[in-house]
UniProtKB/TrEMBL annotation:
One of its GO terms (molecular function) is transcription cis-regulatory region binding. GO terms for cellular component: nucleus. GO terms for biological process: positive regulation of transcription by RNA polymerase II. This is Transcription factor. Keywords: Nucleus. It is found in: Nucleus. It holds the Pfam family Fungal_trans_2.
Amino acid sequence: MPEGMMIDHLKVVWERRPTTEFSLGVPEKVKSCPVLCYAVLSFAARHRREDDIADAAYQRCIALLIDRLNEPNASHDETLLCAIVILRFYEQLNVPSTTGSDAAQHLAGSSAILRASQGNHCVDPSAPTLREAAFWVYVRQCLYTATINQQPPDVDFSLQLHPTPGSMHDSHPLARLRLETAWTNQMTWNTALIVNFCFETDPLGERKNRSARWQELWDLVQAWKRDRPAGFDSIWDGPATEVDESCFPQIWFTADWHTVAFGLYHFCCMMLYSFKPGPRFAIRSVGSLSNTDRQILEHARAICGACRSTPETVQLSITLCHTIFIWGPLVSEAREREEIVHLLKDFEQKHVWPTAWIVNALRAEWGLSQSH
């Protein structure tokens, strides 16, 4: 498979961010790093459904990776980190579509290298290096696994973002691209903080502080929406129409990373609504939605609308897949259910991302027969 074609397939799993070293650095290093080359080949071939080539490349990559990991400075080798991050995508595409069984071995491998090589406790959200770009890809991979399994993400939360997007000021035209990368990754970090808050164990001594922490996180997300560059706003949005045969709003953005940040913002809001501290009934009234449920569904519909409008933004479709486990059971309208299932099936058809098990889980929650 030509190198250009391999890279083109790999690009589907990260938004085409303007300054990311991942999309710029990986193609350059593939030519001289066999481990990285075989990692990219294994994913690209799997994405093309060329399973024999994918399996052979994967086995070769693992053999080379084992040898390289035994070297003294392996934990500081950014190409090895990139290779393992890419192997995680390969691993996700290899999850059985009907069961969703995921060992997440390469996610653990990325975590081990990142923690072993953390020289300081700061990370740059503008991702100026290949290692930092790989870090942000890893964080988004963690969000998927954490949400589906409802567990804290394996992220070092002692890290501080430096510089913060709000402190970055430069009049150079290219600085805008660096700034937008930083604001996108700020939203990624906010999401990780919120997912950790929602799924972390809750020691008795800390319960009294949860309401204050919840408010702090809510303010953090709303401040991001208020202060982000105007370019993150949609260029057009409108309500669902019969002409479009869709239940969901139409929403378009100028760039992939704007769309991804939009999805993460709505994900944060629905998580905070779902896990807001306070008294609640253990059992809900059958067939009724609370005001909180309705607010969650409005955020879910925004994600669905953006997914339908820009199906080529794979990272947003991945967000749809894992956030469904938060809001999916609340959907009661038959047309909305049908369109959600279509979005999931279409994602698997186009990008080999396993969604049949998600569809079956939804149907079970909705009391419907399983798909075959």
